[in-house]
Design goal:
This protein is an alpha+beta fold. Helix content is 36%, strand content 18%. It has 24 helices and 25 strands. The strands form eight sheets. Strands 2, 3, 4, 5, 10, 20 and 21 form a seven-stranded mixed beta sheet that branches. A five-stranded antiparallel beta sheet has the order 14-13-25-24-23, sandwiched between helices. A hairpin with a 4-residue loop joins β11 and β12. α11 runs antiparallel to α23 and α18 crosses α19. The longest helix is centred in the N-terminal third of the chain and has 31 residues.
Length: 721
Amino acid sequence: MSNIPETGRTQRVQIRLIVIQVLVFSLLLTLGGRLWYLQIRNGQEYSDEAKNNHVQQVVQPAARGSILDARGVPLADNETRLVVSASRTELLKMDDDGKAVLTRLAGVLDMKPQDVFDKVRLCDAKTPQPCWNGSPYQPIPVTDEATTQQALTIRERAEDFPGITAEPTAVRRYPAPGKANTAQVLGYLSPVTDEEITKAQDSDSPYLRSDMVGRSGLERTYDKELRGKAGVTRYEVDNLGRVIGQAKNDEAEAGASVVTSIDARVQAVAEYELNDAMKKARLEFDHNTGENYKADSGAVVVMEAKTGRVVAMASLPNYDPNSWVGGISAKDYAELTGKKSNFPLLNRAIQGQAAPGSIFKVISSTAAVNAGYPFDGHYPCPSSYSIGGQTFTNYESQGYGDITIGRALEVSCDTVYYGIAHKEWLKDGGNNPKKHPKDWFYKTAHQFGLGKETGIDLPNEVSGRVPDREWKKNFAKANHDAWCKQGKKDGTYVEKIAYENCLEGDRMRAGDSVNYSIGQGDTLVTPIQMATIYAAISNGGTLYDPTVGKAIVSGDGKTVQAIAPESHGKLPFTKKTRDEIDEALAGVATRGSAAWRFGGWPQDKIPMHAKTGTAEVYGKQTTSWFATYTKDYSIVMTISQGGTGSGASGPAVRNIYNALYGLDATGKQDLKKALLPTPQKGLPKIRTDGTIDAPTIKPYHPASEKPAAEQTLAAVLGRRD
């Protein structure tokens, strides 16, 4: 008898068949599910991706917006130039990495081959300028000054110049209207980097590889608004790359224009007068050092007193921002950044720090009143003040007897402030300070806004320094070991100071306090801080955030976004104290240390208020400060190693005011010659096509030099503080 069933299958075979059937059905089910997922669930997504595989994009960079002065005069705009660029990606495909092509290109452009090689190499930590710090996949500009013939040669002989393009391109231009350079305020552009592209890719303002980015000044602050939005044209192509239709077109949106509060005419005056003051200072002999003043750098700020808007801001040495357009040369880069350059890229109006000297006394006067010393009280003003074995002298060692704080401001009497500061130091415990000392002088400086940024709409502002007890402790902790290593009890001056600091560098000593009260010692301020403070005294006590941007106007001119002035605090005095300081500062200009610089000034029509400052710096010549205000403007000028405040900076500040108000040397006013007798309120006229109506301006021509007789009289009067 056989046990084989009629089907001929054993039970074992039957089981195997069932397993195979299950596997087949499972695979079919999985495949069906996957097809459903791909074609139905995510079908549209993959369909779109498939279509995009046959779409090529062409990017049209947006025209960068202009930077305009308060009347619409372009400070930065664009012009069309013939730009020759090299594609690094194409060059690297060649056997010699494109050296032969670049050598031929150098011959056409009348350049040295090495200069062209340097232009297209990538920047890194070991590669000096010139080099390319943008994306390596972006065409690299070799020159933006190609002639028509050079461009035609490159295009007609395309087979000799693979990877090279020569096309008309809009490039940045800094026209310097009326010779108003405005370099540090405007800033400059350089190519976007891969790191920046990656960082901004998910933001509301992503970068394109072709973008140029603001690196300093207004170009950086308002980069997003100025850059606009690039246009993208998408073409459908077949598998051979032939265009078969246009898919979608996003029009480019031109960048917005930034209208500033800068007046190009006043800017030109400020730059000229600062430069002229520094030139004249270098002709003056410094009896302390036995050589002429170096006057190596300087800054001036002209600010609207009631709004904090900056009308002019000059910093020397300066530079030509056009040198960055199209890539900076090795020579220009070295001149801007080398050890002998004196760093012209610095905006010394917001980044230059120095001891303020006597212009700080408005703060000390307020501190004294708040500490309980009547403004109209009488305080001794001897020629010197002694603490222990150390003697602190008045400037030029002149004494005035018993005087008020107001009179001390007028004649800049140091010893009045020495005496009050010393008393306050003793009240706070002297060398054994109380647990909670009043520290009126330090507290008041912070309330005036010192020791922190003003908030101006320019990048990289520095904060200055108020050397209070906390700063002393932190500074001593950081430098204690170095002081102890360097210090010698009977060594040089520097070694003796280091020795004392090693023993008690964290202690607020009497000498620190009295020096601080007249703006000396470790105190550091910036010109923009002092301009903000003097503007606040003028307007009654409101500290405004200084602003350069006034409005943002869209590329089509249809949208205007005003930038309103904002306040960051009030000065810590009563109206009575403010008015007393105001009167004293008017006295400085009429009968005090600045009177010889304001002879003939129409004080009854345009009240002038001023304070001179001459700050002593160890190892250097004195720093000149001149701080002033009217009801309309605050002007502060400083010159490093320039001499006295009224001697070096005074004439230049007077000339700026003369230009603003249309005054001649005798104080007679001609409003037809006045550049800005009252601050500019409105915005420039915007045409229907979005362009802005801009007046033309002429270069500044200063008044003739003073006659010899007047110069002799000034010498007789002397140069005080």
